[in-house]
Design a protein that fits this description.
The protein is α/β, with parallel strands linked by helices. It is built from eight helices and seven strands.
Length: 309
Amino acid sequence: MATVHSISRRDIHQQVTDTIIQQLQDGTVPWLQPWQDGRPFDPLSPGTYKIPQNFTTGNKYRGINILLLWHSSILNGFPMTEWASYKQWQDKKEQVKGGEKGTMIVYYDTFEKEVEGELEKIPFIKASHVFNRSQLSSYRPGEQPSIQIVRSEFERIKHVEEFVANTQAIVQHKEPEAYYSRTLDLINMPERDLFIDTETRSAKEAYYGTLLHELTHWSGSPKRLNRTKGKRFGDDKYAAEELVAELGAAFLCAELEITPTIRGDHASYIESWLKVLKDDKQLIFTAASEASKAVEYMQGLQPQPSMRA
């Protein structure tokens, strides 16, 4: 049965960071691997990650827990996106198969401590374990998620177009490079016909995956979420903001059902992230949290159900 572990903040940060580092060293980028829900894992199969969710509450996981559950799905070949603790599955009359191991997730809690005569809430990090639906005795191979909507590429791309338009971000196509200008508060994108099809995603998905990266940068403007960005390439804050944009784009791609873009300079790309993660064991936590905040901010700019005709 899974238990809650009160590991020290330092231990959990290092353990989780080491998990991400190991995957990068194995040649896999945990926030860019193509994924197709409801099917056996195939790294060359077109499709996208799905945001994992808790089966009993229906809540989607956030921040670093998304990466931890994606990593576990790749490592173990889990085809489902539904997770729950041992007890939560039991409460639903479900039984985890004997010998199955849980996947660690983390969350923050607080305890009260007297500081200079006043009680203060001190945050600390905890770890617990959850199990994938495919680890249950009742699971049968080929079983589909309880909620599954299949959309054509046209429908998915139209949805992304609407999502970007609803943010009211300014997007121009004047230069053959992708960037967000904090000074001008606008996104520049290469023309769509400069993107090409690959085995894992279409040219259109490559374009929109890149656009969502820049849109995540856009969300960090001082007039929005006010994230700090470094002044030059190689700066620690620059690297942190780039990681936020990478994760934000991956999370948005999962939400909008398009394949995230994989960099052409894959080896040097992986090497750059290995360096910054080894230098700062808390970076992946902070970046994943900020990425989730960025996604939620942009989702908040979308028309709410009650406002739609």
